[in-house]
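Worked example 2:
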Amino acid sequence: MSIAENVQAVRERIAAAAQAAGREAGEITLVGASKMNDAAACREAVAAGIDVLGENRVQELLSKYDQHAYDGVPLHFIGHLQRNKVRQIVGKVSLIQSVGSAELLEEIEKCAARSGLVQEVLLEVNIGGEESKSGFGSRELFSAAEAALEHPHVRVCGLMTIPPVETEKGGNLPYFQKVRDLYVDISSKLFHNEFKYLSMGMSGDFEEAIRAGATMVRVGTAIFGARDYAK
């Protein structure tokens, strides 16, 4: 199937999942996770009506950015971000989804201030408490969100999570529900209910995420095909 056909198929799955949850498909933003796909593939996704493109790696993003791969849609950074690479993407991406430490927040504030802009971000939640993953633990998330309010050049727009790998179908639903509860609590207590994005769910579990309340899903394989990690 072509990328356009895949985008259509994913949209149909989103619509079905939303309907089953008593929601509207229009509530969910589809992010094409274009890691390891070239500029031509990104342009195909844009032509197919993808809402957003998301990149995991700074160097790959910069290379494709120079090739105008993302023209026509917002660009998000969705991978692990090192502090020394923040300056390379602030101002190029409309949203940094993977802010999982106070130090990273501070670096984004500094770079955005130097550029005279306000960078929108999501706070990443390590909901499974996995040592191999970045992100704030659920117990430290509220204080991290409070601290973010002290940064005038950073705007927190919601939360993002990557739960543990599923061992059975539906296994991530409880994790997604926990993040949804955190999202509602922090938005109401600190951000005047103005959070916009609850980014959770990927190719294998985005229907569960929609059921739990996701407003944004990050889909790579189901749109672009399986990645060749041997390259």
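The mean pLDDT is 96. The first strand starts at residue 29 and ends at 33.
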